[in-house]
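Quick start: read one record
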Amino acid sequence: MTDLERQGITAARTAEYGSVELDPKKGAIESTQKLPLLLGRWEVHPDKLYKIAFTAYVAWFVVHRVADIAYILTVDARFPAGLEHLYKNEAQRLDSVAYTRQTLMCGLLHRCVVFAVVVSLVYFQLFARFDTGLRSFYAGVANWWANCYLVQGCTCCCAPLGRGLGACWALIAGTRPGTWCGKFKDHACNGRLVTEIQDRFGFKYSIKELLHGAFYLSLIAGLFFAMSLPFMYWSQWIDLKFGFANSLSVSLKNFQVQACLGLISMIISGIPQKFALLCVLQYRPGWVFMWAGLIIGMCYAQFNVGMMAGALGMDNKFPTASFAVGRGFPLQQTNIPHAPWISLNRLFFPNPYQYFAQTDTKPVDKYYTMDKSKGPLALMHQPDGHWVISGNPLVDSTVYTKSASASEMLDGLREQSWTVGGQETKVGVRSGKELRDKLFKFASDRRIGIGDIYMVDGSHRDARANAFVAGAGNHSIIALYDTLFLGQRGADATEDSSEKQDDLDDLAEGKALIQHASEVVQDVDIEEETRSQKKPRNSAVTVAMSDDEIVAILAHELAHSALKHMEQGLVTQVFTSFVTFAAMGWMASSPLAAAALSLQMPVLHIGACAYDHVVGPPLEGFMKFFTDGQTRHNEYEADGYAAMISERYADAMQSSLAKLSVNSNQDPDVPLWYDAMHSDHPTFSMRWAHIQTVREATYGKKKKP
């Protein structure tokens, strides 16, 4: 027999050969005289390939899960010696330990479940069995359709009308309705138009077979998504429990609805996507065109990222005028049905439609929220000197709180104390123009091109601060999340633990997760009216960034552009995506891979599915080990670049990293071996030490912790 791997034999239709299951002990090509060649060079028995791939997959899983368990048992979330003061108290450190352990445990169990399912699919040959069962299901549905009384005239429900409609149908169509439907189905799948499309585009598989493959892949993807839902629910619960998710916008009940809709959408919208994938992948070099298309799209997006800012969630440019920042306010109850509770800890901008075009040349007496949080607000200066936070006059005129008299507008607003619910706090003021000027001056001095700066509304979903730079070349865009400004400071950072919370507190007191999930699904624990009256949990206690810290963070992000890290990452992506697409193309069309999966011939969609869930994850994980190493190296370089600008930036870089670590409950001293296996950013202790080394080498003195 000639070499199947060199010939690249594929069946025109799976119906000609099916997804035949073979005895794995005997092998898939027992009767052949010559083994197929791996990549046209090496003789490999399919059974041997199966054992090697299966062993590698299991070994990869075991090594990573042992590492997870070891880290869970040893995590203590302590800052390095001399930096213990960064935690305000021991409870904050214990919160970080609890959050890290629960997050790791959720991920560990999720991966264990996925591993068990994948191993079952491979060992029990369920990829082929599911394909066979799906085809049997089609045959059963077709048989039911052909013999259904309803289709043949509704004789079972309304006999006289059914017989009359059946007679009219027979007169028009010249045949019985059931027979006509069968002919229509055959014409739709094998008619002249379909044949012409297949001939013109040279399809190796029929459209019917490709649609079957798309449906097969969508169902498998839906299965894995459904398996992930309990762990996604658990992860959402963890974020709500620790205050990172905004409980005013995010709830477990909403998550359930969105998850169900997401599952349905994944299956329905996945069919045309998978169909297009299989149409290209059916050709042996098809993966090359897919890879080339991806690279072209990535390059275009990187060098034209400004055009895609809206799609990335960047709707508002960073303001050039001063803006107000509410911090430390307790949640306020309203009479608005869709927003019974609102947060006053928001950003307030002048001119709600063109605030980014304003300047500080004249006083502004009205500020408005421009975010997606519930309850639009207005901060207004009254004629009697009072500042008032109320509902947006265009939407709601409710007055939520009132300050003392202010002598001047912005200065008074900055200095006034506000007392709300017995809690004293302040409304801060930030100069957008000053921040923009600092940033653009920093970039121009180093010949770094910046397209624009955007303010990203992240607080309506998550309390953790962040910033990023996107785009290659000289037109990068910078995004600052509003959470960088919304942290609570010093004595204003209080934990509201006096009132019993709803679902999350029940869980914290020991209610079983399964019992809680059952109650939420049935909605029997709390009536909706009672639920709306309960005060939600405040967001996590975070610390706002100073102007110097924000500029230091942006200097770090701009360093990625100055050091051409974006371009380096693009080159790396070219090589890694080439390997993954090549592996997918080989799995989809290789007779050797098909034989290892106990198939007589390659089955396009089964090969693609096996790549997605068996070959792809460890292959991509192996490459990620090296790409993460490159990313960590780039982070060190960017930190050093920012630190070498001035000692002031070095100080701000270290303090901002400390705040980010505390704000997000990160373990500040992750073991180096675990960091290398899982993280694309260095741990806080390593970054602090690196900046300290750069600082001493540049300025010749050591900063006291």
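The chain is about 55% helix and 10% strand.
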